[in-house]
Design goal:
By secondary structure, the chain is mainly beta. Strands 20-25-21-22-23-24 form a 6-stranded antiparallel β-sheet, with helices on both faces. Strands 8-7-6-3-9 form a 5-stranded antiparallel β-sheet, with no helix packed on it. A 3-stranded antiparallel β-sheet has the order 13-10-17, with no helix packed on it. A hairpin with an 8-residue loop joins strand 11 and strand 12. The chain is globular and about 50 Å long.
């Protein structure tokens, strides 16, 4: 039996597939895709072009994608960041040749209509949002960066692309404490367990796959439970948690419906009633 590539990371349908899959999957035609950028603060990526379909993941303002198809106000895209494939409303995209220069480095921020915190907020921004900065100004002793669209963001909430927020991704994950849990969420407004890992690592310049099964299969190296230290990962079927120290985890979870801190032993006992014991431990 032929095993088809993972549809989350490979774009193919009977009528169309990405060029990289030529020779691997059958399709009527193959395309390389055209570049576009996310124009919404957060754009939901779905497995089919239907607003009633569940959310697989989310793409953030300023992230780049390749558009493989457009039809009926929907676009079929592949993320340049983590390779995730799915559908989003065409209105969530913009074709922008200006390169992003900065990234939002705090869990949540705002783009203001002008360089003053008293001006109306134009839209909200999540950690990881990419910005194209064209200038700067200072008002009321606060420095602002001017975006290509004319809005302003607090300079202290941003990093230049290529800079990192340090080496300790666990401390970044802890900044999300009490952020609402959202299945498929991948932003500072709501996120799931694997997105917490991915976003926190991203801000330290490290990469991680999007979903927990992908992380369990190849992120870092396997270790034993007795070897767990800060920064290691604990996996259950469909779930991942970050070790804050050798006894405590941080995780976005459906029990508290938030990012929470919990004792590892207590979590293993609680989760075991529904999802059995951990499936593995890894050091990323």
């Amino acid at each position: 039996m032929t095993t088809l590539p993972d549809r989350r990371l490979n774009a193919y349908r009977p009528d169309l597939a990405e060029e990289a899959l030529r020779g691997s999957v059958a399709a009527e035609r193959y395309v390389a895709g055209t570049p576009a950028r996310i124009a919404d603060p957060v754009a939901a990526l779905r497995p089919r072009p239907d607003l009633a379909a569940g959310i697989d993941t989310q793409l953030l303002f300023g992230e780049d994608v390749r558009v493989l198809d457009r039809a009926d106000d929907w676009a079929w895209v592949k993320s340049d960041f983590d390779g995730y494939v799915g559908y989003l409303p065409e209105a969530a995209l913009v074709e922008d040749e200006q390169a992003a220069t900065h990234i939002i480095a705090v869990p949540r921020s705002f783009a203001y209509s002008g360089p003053d915190l008293k001006t109306p907020a134009a839209f909200a921004l999540s950690i990881g949002s990419r910005l194209t900065v064209v200038g700067e100004s200072e008002t009321r002793a606060t420095r602002y960066l001017t975006l290509a669209g004319g809005q302003s963001v607090v300079a202290g909430h941003c990093l230049a692309l290529g800079e990192t927020a340090g080496d300790d991704y666990v401390s970044i994950a802890a900044r999300f404490l009490e952020t609402p849990y959202l299945w498929g969420g991948r932003s500072g407004f709501g996120l799931d367990c694997s997105a917490l890992v991915q976003l926190a690592m991203m801000m330290t310049g490290r990469t991680a796959p999007r979903d927990s099964d992908m992380q369990a299969a190849g992120l870092g190296t396997p270790i034993e439970r007795a070897d767990l230290v800060r920064g290691d990962l604990v996996f259950w079927k469909g779930h991942v948690a970050i070790m804050e120290d050798d006894k405590t985890i941080l995780h976005a979870n459906g029990h508290t419906m938030s990012v929470a801190r919990e004792g590892l032993d207590a979590a293993i006992e609680r989760i075991g009633w529904l999802y059995q014991q951990p499936t593995g431990y890894r050091r990323p």
